[in-house]
Design brief:
Largest sheet: 5 strands, mixed
Strand order of the largest sheet: 5-4-3-6-7
Structural class: alpha/beta
Amino acid sequence: MVANLIHSQEALHGEFGGVVPELAARDHLEKLPGLVDGVLKKAGQEPDGIDRIGVTRGPGLVGCLLIGVGLARGLGAAWEKPVVGVNHLWGHVYAALLGRPELSPPLLALVVSGAHTDLVWMLEHGRFEVLGRTRDDAAGEAFDKAARMLGLGYPGGPALDRLARGGDARRQALPKPALPGLEFSFSGLKTALLYRLRDLGGEVTEQDRADLAAAFEESVVGALMEKLDQALDRRPATEVVVCGGVAANTLLRRRAGEVVGARARLTIPPLELCTDNGAMIAAAATYAPVNDLTVDPGLGW
């Protein structure tokens, strides 16, 4: 990785408690050109030295995707460079290669973000097989909703992580989601937290909140690690990747090391590369063919 710049929209969406698509798209329109200029200057790079331009074409918010693809098309025409449409989900897996350049498939990947919770087998570059996924809420979405119930700010995942560090999950134990096979489900756990808060009524102390945060985190991470353990038994791998925004979670990073152990080599991207970033899309674009740039908000693997 030569250079990477990230513009956060946390402050923009914080007062609303979640992402507002229209605001996100407008901010993309305003900030993207300056970020492109900034990263070129940071890298000391002129357009003539660029081989190709990578851009996310999905999945994601349609307005943001359209603005990104439109800018990439314009740069491609101006600089006379090929433009590669990249799958956002692939990008999270390729973020691991930025942290460990010698990493190569085949590998087993657990992709956990605000919208996706998928176990995938990467046979070779650009070829993915989905082994299991969530039936409802993604892990990151569940963290955000739990944080909102506990009165925490946006983004909820990091706030819940911080609060959980001062809690004891055993004092407010919550059920661990259990589904057959390698599928996930977190909607029932979210409901269990809602009922626990209802039962406590107006007697919720700060310690209760910390304990509930720890219990919720323990259940989510426990479910993720149980499926990762099962996947390793079914599909032995020498390389394992845990990636996506939720891979920044403190407990998840520690438990993943314990579950994988000596069975395989574990790679988790650096914290700054877990959440969405341009570098991971550039890494994926290195291995992707120049392809259709049609925006697809619901693009799968």
